[in-house]
């Protein structure tokens, strides 16, 4: 659960979210190094006289500033592609849950069991108990097993919705007439909001 004035991500609950956090840190370090180098070069150009103007026309310098960004982009793209394929992969799910978005509530159906479905309505602010979170508490929570691959089928009845659980690294759009699919696996027990 996020808390007020939080600067970072929520604690990772799934292997995919852990990979996303590592990728974020990797990319942020590359951006930080590039920004530091550019700031250093700009400050150098503003504070010193250009005595070696012949170096600005050198073939080697042009080669370096063409090849170096290509290498940096590859260093960002390869981990990103690996994570994208990991997120798309479905390894023989043990449970399938169908999620239908309605204008003011969600409907859930455990498709592996007969007649196991329910609606989940948001609790109005006036009915919240002390300690419950406004706009996040519902009357019927989805209960899912831990350390099991779960396939979520997400769609909508009427309007566009977004089914998201940040600590699991999930965000899937619910679009009327379209069935989207995502996979999740929780590595620890808990109550996760989205």
UniProtKB/TrEMBL annotation:
State the reactions this protein catalyses. 4 Fe(II)-[cytochrome c] + O2 + 8 H(+)(in) = 4 Fe(III)-[cytochrome c] + 2 H2O + 4 H(+)(out)
- Record-linked Pfam families: COX2, COX2_TM
- MF terms in GO: copper ion binding; cytochrome-c oxidase activity
According to the record, the segments passing through the membrane are: 27-46, 66-85
- Which keywords accompany this UniProt record? Copper, Electron transport, Magnesium, Membrane, Metal-binding, Mitochondrion, Mitochondrion inner membrane, Respiratory chain, Translocase, Transmembrane, Transmembrane helix, Transport
One Gene Ontology BP term is: ATP synthesis coupled electron transport
Subcellular locations according to the entry? Mitochondrion inner membrane
Q: Where is the Cytochrome oxidase subunit II transmembrane region profile domain?
A: 1-91
Membrane topology qualifier: Multi-pass membrane protein
Record-annotated Cytochrome oxidase subunit II copper A binding domain positions = 92-194
Report the cofactor remark.
Binds a copper A center.
Required cofactor(s): Cu cation
Query: Which protein is depicted?
Result: Cytochrome c oxidase subunit 2
Q: Which organism is it from?
A: Hemitragus jemlahicus
């Amino acid at each position: 659960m996020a808390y007020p004035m939080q600067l970072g991500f929520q604690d990772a609950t799934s292997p995919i979210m852990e990979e996303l956090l590592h990728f974020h840190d990797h990319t942020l370090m590359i951006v930080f190094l590039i920004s530091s180098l550019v700031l250093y070069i700009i400050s150098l150009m503003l504070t010193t006289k250009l005595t070696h103007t012949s170096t600005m026309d050198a073939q080697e310098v042009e080669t370096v500033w063409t090849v170096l960004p290509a290498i940096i982009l590859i260093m960002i793209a390869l981990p990103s592609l690996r994570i994208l394929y990991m997120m798309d992969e479905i390894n023989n799910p043990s449970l399938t849950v169908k999620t239908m978005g309605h204008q003011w509530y969600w409907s859930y159906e455990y498709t592996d069991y007969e007649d196991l479905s329910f609606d989940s309505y948001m609790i109005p602010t006036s009915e919240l108990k002390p300690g419950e979170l406004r706009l996040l508490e519902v009357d019927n929570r989805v209960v899912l097993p831990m350390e099991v691959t779960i396939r979520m089928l997400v769609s909508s009845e009427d309007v566009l919705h977004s089914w998201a659980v940040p600590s699991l690294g999930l965000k899937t759009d619910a679009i009327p007439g379209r069935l989207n699919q995502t996979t999740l696996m929780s590595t620890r027990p808990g109550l996760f909001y989205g």
